[in-house]
Amino acid sequence: MIQAINLQKAYSGTTVLDLPEFKIENGEVFGLVGNNGAGKTTFFSLVLDLIRATRGKILINEIAVAKSEDWKAHTGAYIDESFTIGYLTPDEYFSFIGELRQMNENDISTFLDSFKEFFNDEIVGKKKFIRDLSKGNQKKVGVVGALMGYPELVVLDEPFANLDPSSQFKFRKIIKEIAAERNQTFLISSHDLDNITDVCERIVILEKGKIVKDVQKTESTLAELEEFFTGVKAKTSFHDEL
Amino acid sequence: MKRNFFYFAWRELTRSAYLNKNMAAKGVLIFLAIYFSAVALFLGFNLSEHLAEAYPGKSQISAFNSLIFIYVGFELVLRIMAQNLPTFGFQPFLIIPVKRKRIARYMLNKSLLHFFNILPLFLILPFTFKSAVNELETPVLFAWLASLLLMIFVNHFLAIYIKWRTNESNYIFYGFLALAAGIFAIDYFGIFDITTTFGKLFDFVVQYPAAVIIFPLAIIALYFLNHNYLWSRFYLDELSQKKKQGTTHDFSWLNQIGEYGKMLSLEVKMIARNKRPRTTALMSILFIFYGLLIYQDYDSETPEFIFVLGGMFMTGVFGMMYGQFFPAWHSRYYPLLMAQNVKMKQVLQSAFFLMAATNIVFYLLSLGYMFISPKVLYIHFVVMLYNIGVNTFVIFALGLNSRKSIDLEQRAMFNYQGMGATQWLITFPILFGPLAVYGVITLLFGNITAYIILGVLGLIGIILHPRLIDYFTKQYLKRKHKMISAYKAT
Fold it and tell me: In total, how many domains does chain A have?
């Protein structure tokens, strides 16, 4: 699905991302973790051709993103608030995105119905502009917009940030369900280790632009991640030590 | 603590990103300030001659007094449109241990440092020392001058108060507009001569200098009105703009126009729902009256050039004002447009359509000027063709250098946020291009040839527009990364 070849991004001589050889398979739910400045958003922006790679390239379905606009038809994304349009109501935003994704009115309303619980009656049918919504509700609009039309690839940068606890749980469930049903590829980053290990099948830790860990999720992944970021080995039980 | 407040204000001024980054805009503001000051100064020195001409035999002072209302009214409207409310940046002070009254007072006092409060001096002082000194005795002169100077501050606080009230709800805003129009009408149709009556107030001061006391009283009253308004609403959600329910006319019929219809309806919503583009659009509608100004003296000897100029402005003004910031209007969500399933081509197509359509509409409206000369019919027409076929692409070409994001929710008048060298330069080829073409060809081959050439150039552009749009699509895609990062940074 996604392939990075000799990918490098540097700002005035400082390399902020360096991925010599990197692949994400079709249908993978891929999680990216790392501290601030690790290069997560840089990587996502490169995938979406929002910034220019200093060296190398990214291919989506074998097409270089910088060369053609065709990948847009099967990619949905939410990176930050610049992916929503402040002066539209959520309904208008959804129908704008939905129509761009070749959905008709019926498709759009069926699609939105499946998010009813997630929206908690605060989004659809309200005559409030997106810029006047709370941060959490803006995020909900943005991430659901990215899912519209079930694109093959969905890129979400910190989708859990700003969401309230129950919305975080609901959204985890949504991603897992969609990924299981439709074989979509997800690229997700998060600072919340618990959320990301719950949702993702493969987890990569970035540090200063380099991959330092690349694992398939197992039972112990969460503990390993915590250990990595705290620098302290997670408490093991007495029995394990024996 | 007071010293600290001014310390913040000074830092705010000297460290604002706007000041450092935008030297061009600052230059223009300074130029405007000097220009208006010079005009006022010139007027101030020549006022007595003009008054002597216009009101022969009448006392200069009372003639001057009778004109004050016009100035004050004009200034009040200008202030309401262009002056910032002093609430700017009060949030961080809310939770520090200072009395709110003190913050309110500080904010009001700070607002006095404004160019509008200095401008009238350039008019008043020369007149005072040239004419008034001859007519009035010293104590009376002082009282009269004081009343004028204090009037500036009455206007200042009145404008702020009205602006606060009108910001609060649209009804009050329209109410205020209606009131202003009503006052103008009453005065204009002579139902009640407010201008003279208002002038009598100052005559009264000349007669009884002690009456000058009413001005400080008015200022104190208005000051406390403002002060209480501020003080009683010292909450984030009350002082900053009200969050209204969106009025949602959805323009969905525009979707049917073509594959770029969705983009177009987004574009129209962007204009209708955001303060800055909306004001820009409204101002361009007002430009239709530009003809009344420049065609009023038309007779058979006036050069036809005037129609070319008028046509340029009246048909193309929206294209110019909107195109000046194309594509920065979409800067806040440019990444979305670049990553979503919108082709760059559709963005350009919808902008082209928008500019072409407004040109045609404004052309039809400008046909009203046929009562001045039927030539308007074809002169405006060829200019319109040129605007659509050539100038839109000039706008696209210059828009490639757009690097500054636009804050959609700010006022449009005297706002130089998002202005860079490009935005200033853009007006030159757009305005002077067709005028130069017209001028040169008229000199060489005569009027009619010039109109034909203008029209043909425009037609060529219109016929070739699909190819030109394809070309610009490529150019815009080439510069997309630069634009995204520049919009993020500003």
Answer: 1
